[in-house]
Automatic annotation (TrEMBL):
It comes from Noccaea caerulescens. SUPFAM superfamilies: UDP-Glycosyltransferase/glycogen phosphorylase. This is UDP-glycosyltransferase 83A1. The keyword Transferase applies. One of its GO terms (molecular function) is quercetin 3-O-glucosyltransferase activity. Keywords: Glycosyltransferase, Transferase.
Length: 316
């Protein structure tokens, strides 16, 4: 980032309220803080309390320092917390409740004579980019996943023009495609918005992707938690995407404890003694993220496949 000369740059960071989104942006925030940049990190009340609860039981709180401030706003699901585990429902609620709260926070900060140098928002929160633009604040959209996921979203109109999906995102054909030579193959019936089981959620998420695409056109930077060498084709297709990864668990800034900052739960280290019995690279790690959905048949097929590898494994 480049900021005009000033006493101390101040960055407002807004993650999507899920573990795989909060953690890398927290790591990026810590890195920026180490460069002398003041950070205000926004989180939902629910996730904020989980992080604070974890920090109270861990020495990780020492890594916040005076360069980072954690603030909280509601996500609108206080009366129906079970819906936080449903991606479509969570996104719908975030879109309804959070924009006004973030705008109020920025107004309050400006009223307190706080100069916000830049807003860094999760790429899926296009409304946050719009709010920053309203206040004429410089802005960066951050994608915590692979660049291929961003490219897929940016390629929607081409998918429609090529007759692969309807204008509402519904696949017209079940087909394996490549957005560009060298990029991973994708199945049209497994696009992120199609994979949701609820039709209404599919529609809402697809419309949200379209709106986000429009919103982030006004960003000063498009950042992605990836590495150029791993996704050369994707970055070649959209060179405006800047690789800044890897950021997250693998990024050790000072020691292992600091990498857990932003985690909703404490690390379970009970497996380390077991892992130490085996040579490096011999154990398979299996994980599906916060919102991983898998049917009974898929689960059984995966379990059988893992058994056939005859390799030791950790399944989380």
């Amino acid at each position: 980032f480049f900021f005009p000369a000033m006493a101390r740059p101040h960055v407002l960071v807004i993650p999507y309220p899920a573990q795989g989104h909060v953690l890398p942006l927290m790591s990026l925030s810590r890195y920026l803080a180490k460069q002398g940049i003041q950070i205000t990190f926004i989180n939902t009340v629910f996730n904020h309390n989980r992080i604070i609860n974890f920090l109270s039981k861990s020495s990780s709180h020492d890594y916040l320092g005076d360069q980072m401030k954690l603030v909280l706003i509601p996500d609108g699901l206080e009366d129906s917390p079970e819906e936080r585990n449903i991606p479509g429902k969570l996104s719908e609620s975030v879109l309804r409740f959070m924009p006004n709260k973030v705008e109020e926070l920025i107004e309050r900060m400006i009223g307190e004579s706080t100069i916000i140098s830049c807003v860094v928002a999760d790429q899926s929160l296009g409304w946050a980019i719009e709010v920053a633009a309203k206040f004429e604040i410089r802005r960066a959209a951050f994608c915590p996943a692979a660049a291929a996921s961003m490219v897929l979203g940016f390629s929607i109109q081409k998918l429609v023009d090529d007759g692969l999906i309807e204008s509402d995102g519904t696949p017209k054909v079940n087909k394996t495609i490549q957005l560009s030579p060298g990029m991973p193959e994708m199945e049209t019936n497994k696009f992120v918005w199609v994979s949701l089981k609820n039709k209404e959620s599919q529609k809402n998420i697809f419309e949200l992707v379209l709106q986000n695409n429009k919103s982030i056109e006004s960003t000063d930077w498009l950042l992605c938690n990836s590495v150029y060498e791993l996704e050369t084709a994707a970055f070649g297709l959209y060179p405006q995407i800047l690789p800044v990864g890897p950021i997250g668990w693998s990024q050790s800034l000072e020691d292992d404890e600091s990498t857990s900052l932003g985690s909703f739960l404490p690390q379970d280290r009970d497996c380390l003694d077991w892992l130490d019995r085996y040579i490096p690279g011999s154990v398979i790690y299996v994980a599906f993220g916060s919102f991983g959905f898998m049917g009974k048949i898929q689960l059984e097929e995966l379990a059988i496949g893992l058994e056939l590898t005859k390799r030791y494994r950790i399944w989380t």
